């Protein structure tokens, strides 16, 4: 079975044959995976190099916690790929982007107005949470399409604050 | 000594104090808010009492309720930990009025150091050097005038402040009005008091503090210094003892001044005098924390003194067992605060359920933690969930050991600042000991991932998917304990060569 | 220094060594048998290689296979840990022959101390006091004759022995033939060599041993003593440093003799000279362990010296960084070995799956452990699965801290000797420091349970049953995270009074 | 609902009414039980005294690991009790007792013969396991009814070695 795996926008092809031989991008590799019984934790030996990671199921794949980093690996097998008519890899987003509240809190200040051009890293909103003021900054440059909140308003985690175009 | 101690706190510090009581053979009482019902401190104590709902104002800050619980449980002493009621003189007084020993300084010492503006005056009178600045609470207009005189950058501080709340550095006169407004807002929200004052910014400066112990018989000693320059928005992240910038002569001078500061307010119990240290070895009084500090373990590890046990002994009226000359520092200790914050997203606090936990251990490693598998990390309280402390023969060994311990630390389900700490331990500036309070400001968190990480994640995800698919297809429960069959046959061949 | 170190061992000691390498920046290679595929040491190392099936003779004792792995992985040094190949001179030689550094003493020193009968002769010649006894391997008839001359009780020891295997104390002449037969059987099984010898029993005696460090440049120092009198069938259970019976003068005398013993066999690296100490302060050479000891951490905690890192440095040809006068002991350290044995059933080894694990931590506590949740404790290897070590300012504080730490230790799914350790820490004899090697023999493990235990267990079982029944009846999945509704209403009323 | 619980041969009656009030042997008690999510571990507050324990299901009840001790608590509810026609508490065993191997190993020696009278604590069999000789002793006095093993024989864990009468 062939698996197409996407991690950080990089594609890997992992092939597992019926006798358990494994190939990565066409090259055979020596892999031994063992699960820690009852734990979401695995030990992987790759060409004898030892890796320990925790895995959690997410949509279309797994979140792999490895060496303090979290990797989102989306997995597609060859059947599914054929069904989807080729690569199902998500196209890079160039459309509108919603900036959401990372934690519940209270809006102290809104630093931008609709129509403003903002640069990557520019402060958009000041959110008070856990008794501290937290600056919410633009993750990329763009135009402020819409401001959804106003000072004094309480927001839940995940609530949309600003829409960037 | 007491019979039963109530710990009016939660999290790692509550457990730290409960352990000290347990080792002294004292009975213990924990208190808890709704979300803390299964917290480690509740399970650790001999008895536990419910306080109220999650907000601190309805639980851990309720003086009346805590005193009531202490009476009901028959506790004869209360330890406040840090934060919450630890520097609340009214609470200390309420304990005394209820006939319960408050394990901390007398209320008047808390009050004397609690008003930062008054404290500056007291310290100046006692001959303790203070940072130049406005000596009283000022209006915005006065502040602007004073700032122009002192020069920029300048620091705004809350008169009732502490813990970085309401503090701002301002670099240009233009930014001052906005910063004053914001600082007053934060001070008002945190302390119900929007008075502020200005201080000259000592820059570059190290944050160096002296741990003090004072008994009720007039004996005051210090346990050397801690360097806490690695701060973000005035919240300490990494502390160490000794400081790479302090030699024996400077330690003696700073220690003597700290002891003088403590004596000036009739201090007893454990306390910390914080200083800014400039590159020329000049140091300036910042404030005195009239309580146990988060970072007390680094001092414990280099001096061998158990500060919490000393707090118990002092509060029970015992004399200090040491004279100043008995205190010697051996080796080097470093602490990393483990907070539930995302270092890759501007240190945003994060919540969640702890799905997996593996704590480092082994030689020279100490963990002070509130974490357990299944724990819901609440956004109601401080994001610090644990502390990792290491000791090494030298600073280099301590750094290497900290790196090792951080890499052993697995906390699944929530984001933590562990990756930030690993990057700091690997940074040339930190290793060289070139620290100042703007270290974190200048420090860039790298988003680069290790080269083999993606590859391993891809293989892992494919193999797990494959196994799941096989399980589903044949409807057979595969025993997870048996070894995986995914072994490339060529491996065995390779070994036979 | 080396580039890559192979650790030819398993369990807690493999992890201990891997950590030291990690802190020195050395790459590491683990080896494993079938049941150890997911063991912590495999997950901890940079690389891991499979050795073979479970039996040690097919895996951890396979010299050829281990050397082959070292070559394949490019390891330039091998650390043998303790047990398995640690005191195997042929293995040390095989490493040297393969151009790999053996992190331990030279093969000739291992051989000189390995034959216990030869070692006695060498020590006598070097002026080291030895226990009176037969000076060679003896037939049963000769042994019986010699025993009658030396007097009872008398000790039988295996000439090729170590670790208590093949050892017997015999109190009456009548019991000697049976004991000789049993000892020879055990020695034969353990070492393939049934030679035995007899020694006078020094009784009461303490087991006191001296840790030695020797570099390759002729420098030999000692790190003071450890007392290991708490033994069961010659397996140490509890160790401490310093010994309550050793003062500065005796420490100096014993240390000098231990250094002399090490020099007599051209010893290098870390080693331990074991003595019996009688109540009059006379001490007798027992044997020298030419390897790292299980109980090395207690010495590390009082001296501040990292013995495993010193092993690495010595093996790499470095000079010792200390002279004898630089070594000072501070405070007191105690170690409890955590074995999978049932103290309520004659210390019978037990296996099983670790279903739940909570390790103690906090001030002065160090855990060296191979345990993890989901681990299958194998009966193939030594029943010791972890070690708990504490440090205290005084012996009293160390005991109280050990008690606290033992009570924090939860290991679900397997039986351990933790309850035995708790009882020892609470016993007057241990607290008073009245120790000798027959302490455990005299010690009665109490089967009495705490008075409230049964009551709590009964209520717990009823409530869990009740919840299960309710869940089953209504077919509703009750969220386990929500607080239980079982609260007696009167409690709230009581609080409102 | 009334529960009859047996721990170490001691009987406890635990009554839980519909409003959640709890009585132990007829006396009301203040109890608060909470499970640690995802763990076999519970926190119990009994009259404010805090207990932490791990629970595992066993036949007819639970094994409770509390303060380093394991308690086997057998639980019977009032319906079941009525069905069984009164107390179902097992009568003390006075019949034959099988001595089993606590670990797998090899029999080195059998110290008794059929018909021997043995005292409590007397050695019965020497079992070699983990390279050590382990003495299996009589848990009570009695007569050796049967010897099931002989020297040299390998035995599995739980295999019957001796039957005591």
Short description:
Chain A is mainly β and about 160 residues long. Chain A is built from one helix and 17 strands.
Task: Give a written overview of the molecule.
The complex is a heterotetramer, with two copies of chain A (165 residues) and two copies of chain B (497 residues). With 165 residues, chain A is mainly β. Chain A has one domain (2-164): OB fold (Dihydrolipoamide Acetyltransferase, E2P) (Beta Barrel), CATH 2.40.50.100. Helix content of chain A is 4%, strand content 56%. Chain A has a nine-stranded antiparallel beta sheet. In chain A, strands 10-17-15-12 form a four-stranded antiparallel beta sheet, with no helix packed on it. In chain A, strands 14-13-11-16 form a four-stranded antiparallel beta sheet, with no helix packed on it. Chain A is elongated. With 497 residues, chain B is of the alpha+beta class. Chain B has three domains: 4-103, Rossmann fold; 132-200, ATP-grasp fold, A domain (Dna Ligase, domain 1); 206-452, ATP-grasp fold, B domain (D-amino Acid Aminotransferase, Chain A, domain 1, 2-Layer Sandwich), CATH 3.30.470.20. Chain B has 17 helices and 22 strands. Chain B has helices at 11-23, 40-44, 63-73, 89-97, 107-114, 116-125, 140-150, 176-191, 248-264, 296-303, 307-315, 395-408, 418-425, 428-431, 439-442, 453-474, 489-496; strands at 4-7, 27-33, 47-52, 77-79, 101-102, 154-158, 168-170, 196-200, 206-214, 220-232, 235-241, 269-277, 283-289, 332-339, 341-342, 348-349, 352-353, 356-358, 365-369, 376-377, 384-392, 410-412. In chain B, the strands form six sheets. Chain B has an eight-stranded antiparallel beta sheet with strand order 13-12-9-10-11-14-21-19, with helices on both faces. In chain B, strands 3-2-1-4-5 form a five-stranded parallel beta sheet. Residues 474-497 of chain B have low confidence and may be disordered. Chains in contact: A-B, A-C, B-C, B-D, C-D.
């Amino acid at each position: 079975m062939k698996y197409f795996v996407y991690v950080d926008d990089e594609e890997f092809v992992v092939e597992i044959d019926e006798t358990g031989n494994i190939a990565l991008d066409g090259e055979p590799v020596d892999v031994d995976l063992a699960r820690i019984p009852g734990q979401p934790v695995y030990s992987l030996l790759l060409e004898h190099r030892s890796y320990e990671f925790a895995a959690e199921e997410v949509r279309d794949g797994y979140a792999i916690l490895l060496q303090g980093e979290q990797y989102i690996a989306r997995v597609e097998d060859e059947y599914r790929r054929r069904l989807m008519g080729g690569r199902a890899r998500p196209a890079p987003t160039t459309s509108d982007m919603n900036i959401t509240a990372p934690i519940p809190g209270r809006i102290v200040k809104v630093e931008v107005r609709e129509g403003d051009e903002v640069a990557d890293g520019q402060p958009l909103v000041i959110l008070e949470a856990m008794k501290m003021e937290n600056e919410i900054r633009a993750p990329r440059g763009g135009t402020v399409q819409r401001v959804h909140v106003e000072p004094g308003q309480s927001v839940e985690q995940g609530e949309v604050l600003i829409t960037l175009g | 000594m007491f019979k039963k101690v109530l710990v009016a706190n939660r999290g790692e510090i509550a457990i730290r104090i409960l352990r000290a009581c347990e080792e002294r053979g004292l009975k213990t009482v924990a208190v808890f808010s709704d979300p803390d019902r299964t917290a480690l401190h509740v399970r650790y104590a001999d008895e536990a009492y419910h306080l109220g709902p999650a907000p601190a104002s309805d639980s851990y800050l309720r003086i009346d309720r805590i005193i009531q619980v202490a009476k009901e449980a028959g506790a004869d002493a209360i330890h406040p930990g840090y934060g919450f009621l630890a520097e609340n003189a009214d609470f200390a007084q309420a304990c005394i009025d209820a006939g319960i020993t408050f394990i901390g300084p007398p209320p008047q010492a808390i009050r004397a150091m609690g008003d930062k503006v008054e404290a500056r005056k007291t310290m100046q009178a006692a001959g303790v050097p203070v940072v130049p600045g406005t000596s009283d609470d000022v209006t915005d207009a006065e502040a602007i005038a004073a700032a122009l005189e002192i020069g920029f950058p300048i620091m705004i501080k809350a008169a009732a402040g502490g813990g970085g709340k309401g503090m701002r550095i301002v670099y240009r006169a233009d930014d001052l009005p906005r910063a004053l407004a914001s600082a007053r807002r934060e001070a008002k929200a945190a302390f119900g008091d929007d008075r502020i004052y200005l201080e000259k910014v000592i820059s570059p400066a190290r944050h160096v503090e002296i741990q003090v112990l004072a008994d009720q018989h007039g004996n005051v000693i210090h346990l050397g210094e801690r360097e806490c320059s690695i701060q973000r928005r005035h919240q300490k992240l990494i502390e160490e003892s000794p400081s790479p910038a302090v030699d024996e002569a400077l330690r003696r001078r700073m220690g003597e001044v700290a002891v003088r500061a403590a004596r000036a307010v009739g201090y007893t119990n454990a306390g910390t005098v914080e200083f800014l240290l400039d590159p020329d070895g000049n140091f300036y009084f910042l404030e005195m924390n009239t309580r146990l500090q988060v970072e007390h373990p680094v001092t414990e590890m280099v001096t061998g003194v158990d500060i919490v046990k000393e707090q118990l002994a002092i509060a029970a009226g015992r004399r200090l067992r040491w004279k100043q000359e008995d205190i010697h520092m051996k080796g080097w200790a470093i602490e990393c605060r483990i907070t539930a914050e995302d270092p890759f997203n501007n240190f945003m606090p994060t919540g969640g359920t702890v799905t997996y936990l593996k704590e480092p251990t082994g030689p020279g490693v100490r963990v002070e933690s509130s974490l357990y598998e299944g724990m819901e990390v609440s956004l109601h309280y401080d994001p610090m969930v644990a502390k990792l402390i290491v000791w090494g023969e030298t600073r280099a060994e301590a750094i290497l050991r900290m790196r090792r311990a951080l890499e052993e630390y697995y906390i699944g389900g929530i984001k933590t600042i562990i990756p930030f700490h690993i990057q700091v331990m690997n940074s040339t500036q930190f290793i060289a000991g070139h620290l100042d309070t703007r270290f974190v400001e200048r420090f860039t968190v790298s988003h680069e991932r290790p080269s083999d990480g993606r590859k391993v994640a891809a293989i892992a995800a494919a193999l797990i998917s494959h196994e799941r698919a096989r399980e589903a297809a044949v409807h057979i429960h595969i025993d997870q304990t048996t070894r995986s069959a995914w072994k490339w046959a060529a491996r065995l061949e390779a070994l036979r060569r």
